[in-house]
Specification:
Layout: H1 2-10, H2 12-29, H3 35-62, E1 73-75, E2 81-86, E3 107-111, E4 139-141, E5 146-152, H4 164-179, H5 182-186, E6 189-194, E7 199-203, E8 217-218, E9 223-226, E10 238-243, E11 253-254, E12 256-263, E13 270-272, E14 279-282, H6 286-294
Length: 306
């Protein structure tokens, strides 16, 4: 029984999506069927829809206790230079407020090189072109060695959501994206299957920036794409996570640390994970080395990157 419940917990998002689809079908299409068929169909789909919602809710509330336990993995940082951490698992778990789509231990990273501050949340205009952010177009690297199993970069990069009203619009927009499945939520992305069976996912990539395709073999540290602002994203940033499955529908998050990084103004390299509002600094080139040497505090309140 425990195994069955645990398996159902993995597909809770699929159950919820199916239940929602049944109820949406009732609302928009039942009226076009003959009256007797419509009545029977409405009752059947209503039962399926509400039962699915209840089951998904039960799984969400109780199933987390049965989720598989995973050891923390040490991987390479997907970015180089000085990046601000938001929604970090070092501050809370699940880091994004949900375990859906395997993102329980995910982290958002926003590029903030020394001496430069990104547009502050609440500043005008509330929606900026992605090019206004230094993160947009920055190289993104493979966190692990392995084989690319998913690669998508056709979705557009939209404007930032940098005010309260714009962020509310993002939330409404995200609800619509949920109906299309996780691909529309994570935007352009790459998923790599490691040699040990762990999957590394990086999301919100720039449209048309992938330099790898499904089936390619990559080595940790390889350039795979560029930072973008696709999917459910408030500003250009890198969303990184590990999962125990290759699908966002069924994957469960795995804790991770980044190797050979410094945090904030420390000059010591370590394996770690920055907390919210701390800076990750990974120096393996001249530009990143300058960020490490010049790192200091920056002003402004961090904006949710999702």
């Amino acid at each position: 029984m425990t195994a069955v419940f645990s398996s159902l917990y993995r597909i809770r998002s699929v159950i919820f999506a199916g239940a929602t689809a049944a109820l949406v079908f009732i609302a928009f299409f039942a009226r076009y069927f003959p009256s007797q068929v419509a009545q029977q169909l409405t009752i059947a789909l209503a039962v399926v829809g509400f039962a699915g919602w209840i089951l998904a809710l039960v799984l969400l509330m109780a199933g987390a206790r049965l989720r598989p336990a995973h050891d923390t993995r040490v991987v390479q940082s997907p970015v180089r230079g000085r990046w601000l951490a938001l929604n970090s698992p070092a501050s809370r778990t699940p880091s994004h407020g949900t375990r859906a789509y395997g993102q329980s231990d995910a982290v958002d990273l926003v590029f903030e090189p020394a001496g430069w501050e990104r547009p502050a949340f609440g500043s005008w205009p509330g929606m900026r072109e992605p090019e206004d952010f230094r993160a947009f177009g920055a190289p993104v690297h493979a966190m692990i060695s392995g084989t690319v199993v998913r690669a998508s970069d056709w979705r557009r990069d939209h404007k930032s959501r940098g005010s309260s009203i714009a962020f509310m619009y993002l939330m409404a927009e995200g609800t619509v994206r949920e109906l299309g499945g996780p691909g529309f939520v994570v935007g352009n992305h790459v998923v790599i299957r490691g040699d040990d069976g762990v999957y590394a996912a990086i999301a919100h990539l720039k449209r048309g920036s992938l330099v790898v395709r499904k089936g390619d073999r990559v080595t940790a540290g390889d350039h795979i794409a560029s930072c973008g602002n696709s999917g459910n994203s408030s500003e250009p940033h890198v969303h990184a996570q590990l999962m125990d499955r290759g699908s966002f529908w069924t994957g469960q998050g795995i804790p991770m640390l980044f190797s050979s990084i410094s945090i904030d103004d420390s000059s010591t390299l370590e394996s770690g994970m920055p907390k919210n509002s701390q800076h990750l600094i990974c120096a393996d080139d001249d530009a990143a080395s300058n960020d490490l040497a010049e790192a200091g505090p920056t002003g402004g309140d961090p904006q949710p990157a999702t």
